[in-house]
Amino acid sequence: MRSLVGLVILLLFVACGRKPKPQAALPYGQKITLTDSILTLGGLDTIRFGRMHEGEIAEKPLQLVNAGSRPMIIQSVERTCGCTTLKYENQPIMPGQTHQLQLRFDARGEWGWQLKLIRLYLNEATEPLRLYVEAEIE
Prior knowledge:
CATH class: Mainly Beta
Number of helices: 2
Strand content: over 45%
Radius of gyration: 23 Å
Distance between the termini: 70 Å
Structural class: alpha/beta
Strand order of the largest sheet: 1-3-6-5
CATH topology: Immunoglobulin-like
C-alpha cells in the first residue's frame, strides 16, 4: 500500500513538472476591422495613447482584420506629423486574416492635447482609412 501511495505521488510530481506545449503568438492590440465598404466609403478609428510626458516615446500594437471579400494591401501611408510612425509589412491581407501593425508616437516637442492623423491607402480604395492618434502631453 505504501509503495502504491508513493507511486501516485511520484506520478503527480512528474506530471506537474511537464512543460506546456508552446502556442503560436496570438495577435494583440487594438483591432481595426476592414470591410468592403471601407474601400468605397473610407473609414476611421481613434488610437488613444492617454497621458504622456513631453519627450516620451510610446508604441501601441494594432491589428488590421480583413472582414472583406477580397485581399487588401496597404499601398501607402500619409502622416500629418513626423511624430507618428506606423510599421507594417507590405503583404496582402487575405479575407479572414489579421495583420499586425506597430504605431509609435514621439512626444518630444509636443505639449497639451494632441490629435494627429494617419491615412492608410488600401488597394482599390476610393477613400483612405483614417486613423486619429490622440494623446495628452504633460
